[in-house]
């Protein structure tokens, strides 16, 4: 991930599967709420935008490059390094079709800005398990905007992000966080899985300032009424904001933001808040998953019991 890259997020509308009958093993978790930068290294070099070539052919979004002059290519940087000689042959995978494409060095150089080898974005860290040192974040799966699918990846990392600017939500117009990576790109943890209920991995940072672990609240004990949402809206500082839980159903719940400061600053829920932990009566309830676009003060969440079922 490039230093100080600005990261944007998109809303993901997730259809959740039915609940299971097993319960989470962990008895206590550390609630987080920090904004994180997320990077997934893809196994191929993908075409991120449609590109018209000089010969009239198109490279289409979602196509990927497998070889250059018979040599395997798995990153944009390696492709750039291999652009030697005047005549080049790219091997392109187009859905179920493989194709050879002859280009000059200049023509190949011109398509570099339209290629990608990683998926990245911004989200919120949900919890750390103090015993296993595993973490969970987002509360929903990452869908790559180019592939329109959960991306296969060969390596993943999370980094601490700092909020630079807020684009406020309004009815019909979801807002978002604009963030930068902090602490010289120091990796907080790896990403082992990108599952239905979020991303999960191993926490790699020794941080003595972590909050104290708290008990998990099982779904049958969640009450309608007051609760707190932990999230960051300025810099990297995590704050507590008041919400009201208005509906619970199986492993999911709905809530409205009642905190004046959060409403004034953000309009309610923002893109990038996915994964923000929800606490009620000092116990860990769940994580924000999405907002209601026409009513941004209203959000939905998954119970932490359900989220833990998908951890690796």
Polypeptide structure, described:
Pfam families: Peptidase_S55. The structure is a single chain. By secondary structure, the chain is mainly beta. The protein has two domains: 28-41 and 118-308, Beta Barrel (Thrombin, subunit H), CATH 2.40.10.120; 43-116, Roll (Pdz3 Domain). The chain is built from four helices and 22 strands. The chain has helices at residues 76-81, 105-110, 260-266, 304-308, and strands at residues 28-31, 35-47, 51-52, 58-59, 64-68, 71-72, 87-94, 97-104, 115-128, 134-137, 155-167, 176-181, 187-190, 193-195, 198-202, 214-215, 225-234, 237-249, 252-257, 277-280, 283-292, 295-303. The chain is elongated. The two termini are 24 Å apart.
Task: Itemize the secondary structure elements and their pairings.
Layout: E1 28-31, E2 35-47, E3 51-52, E4 58-59, E5 64-68, E6 71-72, H1 76-81, E7 87-94, E8 97-104, H2 105-110, E9 115-128, E10 134-137, E11 155-167, E12 176-181, E13 187-190, E14 193-195, E15 198-202, E16 214-215, E17 225-234, E18 237-249, E19 252-257, H3 260-266, E20 277-280, E21 283-292, E22 295-303, H4 304-308
Antiparallel strand pairs: 1-9, 1-16, 2-5, 2-9, 2-11, 3-4, 5-6, 5-7, 7-8, 9-10, 10-15, 11-12, 11-13, 14-15, 17-18, 17-20, 18-19, 19-22, 20-21, 21-22
